[in-house]
Amino acid sequence: MSCTADFSGSPYADEVRGQVEAALEGYTELGDGCPDDLRAAMRYSLLAPGKRLRPMLAILAAEACGGSRVEAMPAACAVEMVHAYSLIHDDLPAMDDDDLRRGLPTCHRKFGEALAILAGDALLALAMEVLADGVWPAEAAAACCRVLARAAGPCELVGGQADDVRNGGGAAGVEMLESIHRRKTGAMIGASLRLGAITARAGAAELDALDGYGRSLGLLFQITDDLLDVCGRQEQTGKRVGKDGDLKKLTYPGLLGTEESLRRAEQLCAEACRKLAPLGSRAHGLEAVALSVLRRNR
Amino acid sequence: MSCTADFSGSPYADEVRGQVEAALEGYTELGDGCPDDLRAAMRYSLLAPGKRLRPMLAILAAEACGGSRVEAMPAACAVEMVHAYSLIHDDLPAMDDDDLRRGLPTCHRKFGEALAILAGDALLALAMEVLADGVWPAEAAAACCRVLARAAGPCELVGGQADDVRNGGGAAGVEMLESIHRRKTGAMIGASLRLGAITARAGAAELDALDGYGRSLGLLFQITDDLLDVCGRQEQTGKRVGKDGDLKKLTYPGLLGTEESLRRAEQLCAEACRKLAPLGSRAHGLEAVALSVLRRNR
Asked: Number of folded domains in chain B?
């Protein structure tokens, strides 16, 4: 397997990304009852250019468990909707107060605060509807709803964000930092993998392998995200460089130093790939994702 | 049937309310990962004194279709969680900017804006988890998730709120007013009934009857809510009287006058009760609710 390739720019990733984006377009056409400005705000954030990491993970997990891309697509779209919702709400003035996201004005800067709050709310509800409606059979739909709702809920995504907002002053230590990221980033990465696997009717051993991979990948992702903020350029991240440092937010480079953070990222990448062993060669795409995440700030 | 009794204060309603509140307490104990202040903000709004109309409708609908209260309880709690979430977000400074709710400081006045936004988000996700996890069998769980997510989504609840915020200046007419209320209030009332019915494995004729009842009840509820704002006292509503009028919000008395609004409410109540005919005597509780809503501002 060509583990040196940049997965995110590979023909496979481009193809999947195109299919996911077409499906997201379709899901957000929406019918009567949805005001035009609300639809526009939802689509603005959801369809903004992005790597579509979470949908990619859902689809790769399904394929690694012998499932199909078509069957995994509602799950892939649902996790991207929850991701977009969480970014919109995180960017709000009452939270991180960000003006830029992926190089564009944040949703509330573009549409106003009320519509941004509502667009986030609507994307969360729509994600659940897409799962309940699009995953088959009903056992798998209910299981997907349970996993996604839990990952998006008070003990995971929202709980992590609440601790993140409160610890904006940077008083907490590495344990709180890891706990925040496990809930804010890790839980949704884990849910993406699990949702894909459920649509492929995966067994317990496959789910365990993906859970382990997801835990390592989640932390790896957050460390490289922090490193990107220290070392990256604005054009690459689409947000102001050093912003997290300015606000004295908890970051890995801030707590461990850049060198140690890089070493830790490499360990986690190796760990993530090891966890995939039980899935055999069908998991090579997931290995490539881990390497691609490790390399994104080189 | 004693249609003159005040349903909301009846021994039946008191008993059901107690059971619903105990279940809501249990669902919001939450485990590791949920920060204390987030849990406190969620419980503050969710467990504030209230009539629990929507859970009551879910349970009455289940019982009207031959189902059990225990089986309907997760659905009853889920609709109350979505209701509480929508109130928290509606009250935010960027939306209606309310300081009081049910006689108490609104969630953001008590816990700050960031936690209020997150408490709302968390309640929406928790509602979906409670349904996916607590309704049985899986077909019913998936159907409940689909119905609730749709009612809480961009074409219903959130869409109605977006139009409401935009039309805060009162420029729109009675059609927009009804469309807003159908989506903001009616959709969740309809979903409460339908969820209860699904947990009772209701047939198509039963679902149709409940849908018709729910449409009339939803409008009735909104008209009496508007009338309460004009005629009620602050102690009764827990919010400042005349506030909607101050802000030139669209209201029925504002558009139709008080007399015509009252006449319309009476028609809707009669209509709601007529729609229940196919359900027979098991639907008397739902009739009593309609009468109780009609009489709440006398």
From this structure: 1
Residue A231, token pair as written in the block: 């070392």
Q: Which of residues 49-108 of B touch A (CB under 8 A)?
A: 85, 89, 92, 94-95
Domain of B247?
7-297
Determine, yes or no, domain membership for A2.
no
Please give the sequence-ordered ranges of beta strands (E in DSSP) within A9-131, or none if there are none.
100-101, 104-105
With H, G, I as helix, E, B as strand and everything else as coil, classify residue B213. Answer: helix
- Label residues A104-140 b or e (16+ Cβ within 10 Å = b): eebbbbebbbbbbbbbbbbbbbbbbbbbbbbbeebbb
A30/B92 CB distance under 8 A: no
pLDDT at A5 over 60: no
A277 found inside a domain = yes
Q: Who wins on pLDDT, A6 or B247?
A: A6
**What residues 162-201 of chain A have any CB closer than 8 A to a CB of chain B?**
162-163, 165-166, 179, 183
In a domain, A109, yes or no: yes
ipTM: 0.93
- Could you read off the pLDDT of B148-182 as tens digits, one per residue? 999 999 999 999 999 999 886 555 677 888 899 89
Task: Give CA–CA dist A197/A191, Å, rounded.
Answer: 10
In a domain, B213, yes or no: yes
Q: Is B268 on the interface with A (CB under 8 A)?
A: no
**SS3 of residue B100 by DSSP:** strand
Which chain A residues are Cβ-neighbours of B37 within 8 angstroms?
162, 166
CATH at residue A284: 1.10.600.10
When CB atoms are compared, the residue of B138, B139, B159 closest to A34 is B159
The answer to whether B255 faces chain A, any CB pair under 8 Å, is no
In contact, A229 and A241? CB cutoff 8 Å: yes
